[in-house]
Amino acid sequence: MTRSTPAATSQPWVHDPVRLLLGVGAVLFWLAASIPLAVLGLVAPLPGAVGVFLFFVPQYLFGFALVVRPVESGFARLFPEGTAVLACVALWLAVAIGHAVLTRRWTLTNAFLAALASVVGCAVIVHLAFAAFGYAVQLDGL
Asked: Which UniProt keywords apply (predicted)?
């Protein structure tokens, strides 16, 4: 009969990478859910403000290519297209990994709901940081 050490029983996540993958997957789920929400905002008979909000959610989450800075003739894009894509992927990958590490001991339901808060909170913080430096997101409409 073998006895387990207290450290091994109190930290099961050390030997369970599945918990970390589920945490990353929860953030990626909420990011991916923004696309059908945009379609819903476009085609569903929703009140005006709700439909517009849902339509622009993906641009708000993945909008590094839409960040502009003021110039004499109007506005200019802050990031080139390729850099914007890399910055967006790096940001959301860092958020997903950070969320997974921080919520690895939580129940799956709580970690899944916290992933939504992580996505919304990070998007708000990023856009507030852009605004603090005088940049803005120029959303594309129909």
From this structure: Membrane, Transmembrane, Transmembrane helix
Whether the per-residue pLDDT at 3 is higher than 60: the answer is no
What is the model's pTM?
A: 0.77
- Angle of CA points 40, 49, 109, to nearest 5°: 55
Could you read off the pLDDT of 55-87 as tens digits, one per residue? 888 888 888 888 888 888 888 888 888 898 899
Residue 44 CB contacts under 8 Å (≥ 6 apart), including other chains: 51
Among candidate residues 31, 39, 32, the one with its CA nearest the CA of residue 55 = 39
Identify the helix (H) or strand (E) that includes residue 121.
helix 108-132
Angle between helices 108-132 and 48-61 (to 10 degrees): 80
List 68's β-bridge partners, or say none.
77, 136
**Listing from the earlier edge strand, what are the strands of the sheet with 136-137?**
74-77, 67-71, 136-137
CA-CA-CA-CA torsion for 70, 73, 79, 81, nearest 10 degrees? 150
CB 63 within 8 A of CB 77: no
Q: What is the dihedral sign for C-alpha 113, 116, 117, 119?
A: positive
Residues whose CB falls within 8 Å of the CB of residue 50, separated by 6 or more in sequence, listed in order: 41
